[in-house]
Amino acid sequence: MSQTFVIAGGGLAGAKAADTLRAEGFAGRIVLASGENEYPYERPPLSKGYLQGKDERESAQVFEPSWYAENNVELLRGTAVTGLDPAGHVAALANGQSVTYDKLLIATGAVPRPLAGTGSDLDGIHYLRNLTDSERIRDQLGEHKHLLVVGAGWIGLEVAAAARMAGAQVTVVEVAALPLERVLGRECAQIFARLHAEQGVDLRLQTGLHELIGQGRAERALLTDGSEIEIDAVVVGIGAAPADDLAKTAGLQTSNGILTDEHLRTSEPDIFAAGDVANAWHPLFGERVRTEHWANALTSGPAAARSMLGQDVTYDPVPYFFSDQYSLGMEYAGWIGPAGYDEVVFRGDVPGREFVAFWLRAGVVLAGMNVNVWDVSDDIQALVRSRAVVDRARLADHAVPITELVPR
């Protein structure tokens, strides 16, 4: 009897899962249900090329629109999965219909954390999660515009960079002492602080947003340091939360996302999770890992699809992400985890922003970031995966290839 697989979520993870199912020979019915009216697309362009006006809208699409019909994938645009009956294997859809499934994948991603407080309901406040958001923010990036960015994480800094390159005045408020400090630590976070300050960004660190003021629209911002600034628009980048309501209401185990094993299987054996929403057990690190990056969606969707087909899959990649800000391009690979690190080792030209940084704990490389140094990310990932104690002097010596630090 032919089987039906349902994929809840029409982003990169969901689309790549559907592609893998067909590539692996699955001949049954595939229903890909997306809450957005768009064809599945990748999200990095939203804060990079598309936001900057360099890339066309269609360039973000995972596949050509014709791909879905050609591969017999039922793409339901604007029709999210709204409820699950795990016992009956039934998925309810936003259009009032339902689908009986044999296996189901939840790939619903994450949603921006909302701004709270006085004035948070005014017009002119933007979040960056979809193509329309990116377009609306892009309209605020011209000259004679003053953009307030709340939060100096990756999204906030990439938006700030795009705005400055477009000629806009930019103020960034961040409650931490440095941008990206929670992710990178002080040693590398100060590099990004200097980068943005040099580009004319007004960085208000250890400062929060107290109140937004305006007649229907955000026109002024009162900050916690007592200052008040006039603004044209606000972009909020204070983190994201896993979109796991579907799983919660269905009774699946959740905690900072949908809990899965290393096979991306949830507490319900016929339901799987992938992408931003999955908090998966990672056998390499011996702890749960949930990441909100492009590479995770790209690789976890196919891994979940193979697991749905009964293949022996262990999902244990070294987490990876990248960012482009002004003339600084970087890649980061690794996982520091809640235990933290005890030192950072640099090789290369740090003042010239052409270097590699390594985070270590007890002599073991937990993560590495290459800045304007290319074709070394795979080597960094191999070093992280090795879990080997390294020679600190050799690690810092750019004349020593990273491959020579990996035990053979």
Q: Can you give a write-up of this model?
A:
The strands form seven sheets. The protein has a five-stranded parallel β-sheet with strand order 3-2-1-7-19. With 408 residues, the chain is an alpha/beta fold. It has helices at residues 12-23, 44-47, 66-70, 131-138, 154-165, 181-184, 186-198, 245-249, 294-308, 377-386, 392-396; strands at 4-8, 29-33, 73-76, 81-85, 90-93, 98-100, 103-106, 110-112, 125-127, 146-150, 169-174, 202-205, 209-213, 220-223, 228-230, 233-236, 240-242, 258-260, 271-273, 278-282, 287-289, 320-325, 328-334, 343-349, 354-361, 364-371. The longest helix has 15 residues, at 294-308. The chain folds into three domains: 4-111 and 241-308, 3-Layer(bba) Sandwich (FAD/NAD(P)-binding domain); 114-236, FAD/NAD(P)-binding domain (3-Layer(bba) Sandwich), CATH 3.50.50.60; 327-405, 2-Layer Sandwich (Enolase-like, domain 1). The chain contains eleven helices and 26 strands.
